Amino acid sequence: MMKKLVLLFAVALITSTSAIAQSQEINWMTFEDALAAQKKNPKKIMMDVYTNWCGPCKLLDKNTFHNKDVVAFVNKNFYAVKFNAEGNSKVTYEGKEYSNPSYKEELKNRRNGVHQLSRYLGVRAYPTIVYFDEKGDKIQPISGYMKPQQIELYLKLFQTDAYKDITTQAQFNTFYKAFKPVFQE
After folding, report:
1. Architecture of the domain whose range is 23-178
2. CA 103, CA 139: separation in Å to the nearest integer?
């Protein structure tokens, strides 16, 4: 009887742990799916531009994109896109098809050719998060690894449209100094 209770408890613990893990996942989609979703329910897009070999990209995914506060905020306010900057996908954006003509399958986990969309969006380093407005127009790429409270500043800056009132570095500095993060690290 005791073994049966222990087994039932273990199953319940595994099930609840699995449910918690699943609830801490960002709802990633393709860029084209996000653009299509915007037509039905307008939301901004947050695109994580990464590469397979990029260490900071992996840390961003592990430490920031699995943080419960980041997950909840992104899932509620953005369509989230993961985009491999050196992948071989074909993407249509603003009526033009982008690809990676230099892609080599044998290099898929090492440095590879750069995807044309990455270049078009102004991505010059990895990771870069590119933000888009509700119409799919690029707002801004932000490069570098960020902890939850660091990315919170940008998520809220773009989600609230506060960025539209910031036209100088001094104005951004004022916004930055006044910002009070609430995400847990």
Report:
1. 3-Layer(aba) Sandwich (3.40)
2. 28
